[in-house]
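User: Some background: our group keeps a shared notebook of sequences we're curious about, and every so often someone picks one and asks for a predicted structure to add to the entry. Today it's my turn. The entry only has the sequence so far, pasted here. Could you supply the structure so I can complete it?
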Amino acid sequence: MKLFIRAIVLLAVIWIAMLFTGYGVLAGSNKNAAGLGLQCSYLTARGLITAQYLHTDSGVIGVTDCPLLKKSGEVIDN
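Assistant: Of course. Here's the predicted structure to add to the notebook entry:
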């Protein structure tokens, strides 16, 4: 029972930190536009946001993978 309560408190602290900083954690990604685009979904404290990136396998132009963290445009303390 202690472990369950600690896990709930830890999740609440992480959610509050995400709410005030505006960062989101990568929730999923998929390729689009014949493999040239990369659509990344991020879980923030306010919901899911989607970001579009130019994708190449080499990373010379665009990105190879989605970044793990992304700052959203809406922050609660602005």
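Suggested note for the entry: The mean pLDDT is 86. The beta strands are 23-32, 37-44, 47-54, 69-71.
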